[in-house]
From TrEMBL:
<feature type="region of interest" description="Disordered">
    <location>
        <begin position="1"/>
        <end position="24"/>
    </location>
</feature>
<dbReference type="Pfam" id="PF12006">
    <property type="entry name" value="DUF3500"/>
</dbReference>
<dbReference type="InterPro" id="IPR021889">
    <property type="entry name" value="DUF3500"/>
</dbReference>
<protein>
    <submittedName>
        <fullName>Uncharacterized protein</fullName>
    </submittedName>
</protein>
<feature type="compositionally biased region" description="Polar residues">
    <location>
        <begin position="1"/>
        <end position="15"/>
    </location>
</feature>
Length: 432
């Protein structure tokens, strides 16, 4: 079934050209309660909302694509040419991962769960296909694990303690920010039973241990994490982080704004490149389905190529080689890598950064769209060991029908079987 041409929620008076500067007035594009994007959402749970979306052709297409039955099997890995490059990651014996703290916090969770909840939260081993079963819409089509908004506040706090123990302080603040912004969206559209701070699933894989692999997934609307531990090493990836809108402007969290560095530093980089490098980086000035090839755009991923159910995707290198950048612009690429990966604890991030720098001469920077101060755009940083995307989107809940800077998606993948800790497991002879 071919991809639909729009999200299925458009009506004739939806704005097509909202302001898209860094301070976009998202309140101008909040839907009315009767708009098809949100009509009836106040009366729905996450499960019933998903079922109601199955009755609309476009979201039904997305739900089917994300259904567990359509998970790519066997897992091959995200590559540039269909061939996995072996031996790229070469994890050190001790990379400073906070494994003991993560184990302690996970055991704290297990102590307070009922026997039924323990059965629910354990979803297999990290090498299992089920570990790859994540998705980023609010559509709840694959129940499993613990759904936080169905749990007690004690369980919710314990799960967040695991997230905090696995992340840098800045990274956890970003993770929590995604949760709080999702709650703010629920407030804006009167849909708090579908969109809230805890409308996420936590699934545990393996048994927390300092000697055998284990991990967890945490995913829901605009936030997806796959985390693997093995000894003093850890892998976080793939990840999805996003926001609609990109900021909170009222209440106790007023002033929270996500992805500022990823957004503004990339724009500064593109604007400061010599024109010949700008031209070389630009894949397309147009951002819509008419400007891009059919396999490079759909109304839900838009320009993203590394989202859910893309584990085996082949994405060739495109754009401008970073090796052609002046040294100060190469430094800006490195700083963007740090921004995308700031959820790693500091010691682990140093290892990830060193590996990225090692392959900087094989790294490409690609851009779609214009790059004026108020323009929406897409960009990608792609190397043998990194694949980072930022994209500004049309509204799913907000009513803009062209990309605007108030709806942001970011994706971070580890090509050549780095995703899901596969390369780490294989280095230890645990190939799955």
């Amino acid at each position: 079934m071919s991809a639909p041409v729009n999200s299925g929620y458009v009506q004739t008076n939806d704005p097509t050209k909202p302001r898209s500067d860094a301070a976009v007035p998202f309140r101008d594009i909040i839907p009315s309660p009767s708009h098809p994007r949100i009509a009836g959402i106040a009366d729905h749970t996450a499960l019933s909302w998903c079922e109601s979306r199955r009755q609309i052709e476009a979201p039904a297409w997305l739900i089917n694509r994300l259904d567990a039955k359509n998970l790519e099997k066997p897992y091959k890995g995200f590559t540039s040419d269909g061939k996995v490059r072996e031996g790229l990651y070469n994890y050190a014996e001790d990379e400073g991962a906070p494994t003991e703290e993560a184990i302690a916090r996970t055991n704290d969770l297990l102590k307070i769960l009922s026997d039924e909840q323990k059965d629910q939260v354990h979803c297999g081993e990290v090498a299992d296909d089920a570990f790859r079963l994540w998705s980023n819409p609010e559509l709840y089509m694959n129940p499993g694990g613990l759904r936080l908004d169905e749990c007690s506040s004690q369980v919710q706090t314990a799960i967040h303690a695991i997230l905090k123990a696995s992340s840098s302080p800045e990274g956890y603040e970003k993770i929590l920010g995604c949760c709080l912004t999702n709650d703010f969206l629920g407030h804006l559209v009167n849909g708090k039973k579908v969109l809230n701070e805890h409308s996420f699933n936590f699934r545990l894989f393996g048994v927390p241990s300092t000697s055998t692999p284990w991990g967890y997934t945490f995913f829901g609307h605009h936030l997806c994490l796959a985390v693997v531990f093995l000894g003093k090493r850890m892998v976080i990836g793939p990840t999805f982080m996003g926001a609609e809108p990109d900021r909170i402007d009222e209440g106790p969290h007023a002033g929270l704004r996500l992805f500022r560095a990823e957004e503004m530093e990339s724009l500064k980089l593109m604007q400061s490149l010599p024109k010949e490098l700008q031209d070389k980086a630009t894949l397309s000035k147009g951002m819509d389905g008419k400007s891009l090839a059919a396999d490079r755009w759909n109304p839900f991923d838009e320009r993203h190529l590394g989202g859910a159910r893309q584990d085996n995707r082949i994405v060739p290198y495109e754009g401008c080689p970073v090796s052609e950048f002046p040294s100060d612009k190469q430094d800006m690429i490195i700083n963007l890598f740090k921004a995308f990966n700031e959820y790693y604890p500091a010691a682990v991030l140093e290892h990830r950064l060193a590996l990225f720098k090692k392959h900087l001469n094989e790294t490409y920077f690609a851009w779609i769209g214009e790059f004026g101060d108020e323009d929406p755009y897409y960009y990608r940083i792609h190397s043998p060991v990194a694949f980072m995307e930022l994209d500004f989107h049309c509204g799913i809940f907000l009513t803009n029908t062209t990309p605007a800077r108030c709806h942001i998606h970011t994706i971070n993948r580890l090509p050549n079987r780095g995703d899901y800790g596969k390369a780490l497991l294989e280095q230890e002879g645990l190939r799955s």
